[in-house]
């Protein structure tokens, strides 16, 4: 099976080589605009305000998504376990 993540990694590695020539500096890329940034940059965005804001928003969305998945999973589990518990009482 083709691992999409690995393919993406490979493509980004290749394009890195193409764009940065032969110098092989250790660096990361802004996860929003993909500009090279310092390897110590945390969170993984450049100093562009737009990128910082977008990253912020994305992280909040992700947290919210996880919360909703948790809630749905809880409801899903309860719809199985709930009746069993009620039957036992
Ligand atoms: Zn950026």
Indicate the proportion of strand residues: under 5%
Q: Structural class of the helix and strand makeup?
A: mainly alpha
* Distance between the amino and carboxyl termini: 48 Å
Percent range of helical residues:
55-70%
Bound ligands, named by name, code or SMILES? zinc ion
| Number of separate structural domains | 1
Q: Mean pLDDT, rounded to whole units?
A: 87
Helix and strand succession? HEEH
Uncertain spans: none
What value does the Rg take, in angstroms?
21 Å
Number of strands: 2
Coarse shape:
elongated
Count of runs of 4 or more consecutive helical residues: 2
Biggest sheet: strands side by side, in what order?
1-2
Main β-sheet, in a few words? Answer: 2 strands, antiparallel
Write the layout of secondary structure elements.
Blueprint: H1 4-20, E1 28-29, E2 36-37, H2 49-88
Antiparallel strand pairs: 1-2
Describe this structure in words.
- The protein has one domain (about 25-89).
- The longest helix is centred in the last third of the chain and has 40 residues, at about 50-89.
- By secondary structure, it is mainly α.
- The protein is about 65% helix and about 5% strand.
- The protein has 2 helices and 2 strands, in the order αββα.
Summarize the structure.
Helix content is 64%, strand content 4%. It is mostly helical and 89 residues long.
State the main characteristics.
single chain; 89 residues; mainly alpha; two-stranded antiparallel ribbon; 2 helices; 64% helix; 4% strand; binds zinc ion
């Amino acid at each position: 099976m083709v691992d999409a993540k690995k393919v993406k990694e490979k493509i980004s590695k290749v394009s890195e080589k193409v764009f940065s020539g032969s110098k092989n500096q250790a660096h990361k890329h802004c996860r929003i605009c993909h500009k090279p940034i310092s390897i110590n940059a945390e969170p993984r965005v450049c100093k562009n305000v737009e990128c910082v804001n977008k990253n912020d928003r994305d992280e909040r969305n992700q947290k919210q998504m996880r919360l909703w998945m948790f809630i749905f999973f809880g409801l899903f589990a309860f719809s199985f376990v709930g009746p069993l518990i009620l039957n036992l009482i």
